[in-house]
TrEMBL record:
This is DUF3533 domain-containing protein. The keyword Cell membrane applies. The chain crosses the membrane at residues 12-32, 95-114, 206-235, 256-281, 293-317, 324-347, 380-402. Keywords: Cell membrane, Membrane, Transmembrane, Transmembrane helix. InterPro entries: DUF3533 (IPR022703), T7SS_ABC-Transporter (IPR051328). Belongs to the ABC-2 integral membrane protein family. It comes from Actinacidiphila acididurans. Residues 20-385 form the DUF3533 domain.
Length: 419
């Protein structure tokens, strides 16, 4: 009987594990550190609305000045919207924030430079800065930062204009006027689309979606190992107990049918358990429970089918491929903890097809945005359907090809062994 020392002294034992572990560690380090390194520096086209409710000219000048201000890196995509259009985009998660100029803005500015004895401003001119918590805490924070920067620049522009206007009359500003004219516009902050208290500051959709992906992905691995053990293609081990069943002659295609059917069936159970735990025990704010259950079940099933297809194509190496595709590459490109507008372009490219991104969009729409199709739910269903078709075509296509080429999993001796 061989000893551990003899095995460890044989270099072929080290080659495959060493290469795979080293490469995997290197790739994972690049993926995760690259996605979170500099969200502020990576921001591109952050969607923020500009809403002018003022009846005078100052409001329009203020928002136009913000929209046309130099932005060589295209960090913000300003949207000039009506109040109704802005509300619609907040309710569908398509803007992360807004700067709203209220009625009477021009009058309050004009009152600052009114001659002595004139009408004093009822309050300092202000604008409302709206955030969208449903887009995620970091997305709201980035939008708030961009709004504050734009507000300061816009306020100083207006202050300079008012100062020039006052100087043209030959009047000297009072101490109060001098202080106000340096930075005349203040702000109040409010949510543009409030969400529930038990929503993790807009992060429960991401963690719930990650749970859906993990149950589908891990469930597929468990099913695959269990079926291989039951069919005699892998040992079944429980602690010190080991059993190797007689190999059942079955094609790769038929084996894949078994695994995929079991993955779909188990997704009904796992989705129900996940929803029960999060809704009844943890008590997350989960509106549209039935629709969330249907979406969760289908998403988990598609992930499971995709994972089974990958294992059918790559064999045991498929588990590493699945981990990279469904988890490692998926998390930084999900657009949840860090919005896609704040990650490097590589991750925005991954987000076009990564399952976690699509599932997060659908779950977020159901949880925070009243299950609106244009909040990401329609795209999520479409991409899940495409993923389902690709998984079936690739999985069965490659399995059938292996069968036709005679690349059977069963050992030739088992084909001639008497039953």
């Amino acid at each position: 009987m061989a000893t551990a020392r003899q095995v460890l002294g044989t270099w072929p034992v080290w080659v495959v594990p060493s290469v795979l572990v080293t490469l995997l560690s290197f790739v994972l380090a690049l993926i995760y550190s690259g996605g979170i390194a500099d969200p502020q520096g990576s921001v591109r086209n952050l969607p923020i609305a500009l809403v002018d409710q003022d009846t005078g000219p100052a409001g329009g000048q203020f928002v136009d000045g913000i929209a046309t201000a130099p932005d060589p890196h295209h960090r913000v995509s300003w949207k000039l919207l009506t109040p109704a259009a802005a509300k619609d985009r907040f309710d569908s998660g398509r803007v992360y924030g807004a700067i709203v100029v209220p009625p009477g803005f021009t009058a309050s500015l004009t009152a600052i430079v009114a001659p002595p004895g004139g009408t004093a401003p009822a309050r300092q001119p202000y604008v409302t800065l709206l955030t969208n918590p449903g887009a995620g805490s970091l997305a709201s924070s980035l939008a708030s930062t961009a709004e504050q920067q734009a507000l300061r620049a816009g306020s100083r522009r207006l202050g300079a204009q008012l100062t020039a206007r006052l100087a043209a009359t030959g009047a000297r500003p009072t101490t109060t006027q001098h202080m106000l004219l340096a930075d005349p516009v203040t702000s109040v902050t409010a949510p543009g689309h409030p969400i529930g208290a038990r929503t993790g500051l807009g992060l429960t959709a991401f963690y719930y979606s990650l749970l859906v992906v993990l149950t589908g992905f891990i469930g597929a691995n468990i099913v695959s190992s269990g079926v291989d053990g039951a069919l005699g293609y892998a040992p079944s081990e429980l602690g010190p107990l080991r059993r190797m069943r007689r190999t059942v002659p079955i094609s790769r295609t038929q084996t894949l049918v078994v695994k995929m059917v079991m993955s779909v069936a188990l997704s009904l159970i796992t989705s129900s358990v996940v929803l029960l735990a999060t809704a009844a025990i943890v008590r997350l704010d989960l509106p549209h429970l039935f629709q969330l259950w249907v979406f969760t079940t289908c998403a988990s099933a598609v992930v499971g089918l995709g994972a089974q297809a990958v294992v059918a194509i790559f064999g045991s190496l498929g588990q590493i491929v699945n981990m990279l595709f469904f988890v490692a590459l998926a998390i930084p490109s999900a657009g949840a903890t860090i919005p896609l507008q704040a990650v490097p372009g590589f991750y925005r490219g991954l987000a076009l097809f990564e399952p976690l991104r699509q599932i997060t969009g659908g779950v977020r729409a159901i949880m925070y945005f009243d299950a609106r199709a244009d909040a990401g739910l329609a795209r999520a269903w479409l991409l899940l359907a495409i993923g389902l078709v690709i998984s079936l075509l690739l999985g069965f296509g490659v399995a059938h090809f292996y069968d036709r080429r005679g690349l059977h999993r069963i050992h030739p001796d088992d084909l001639t062994r008497p039953s």
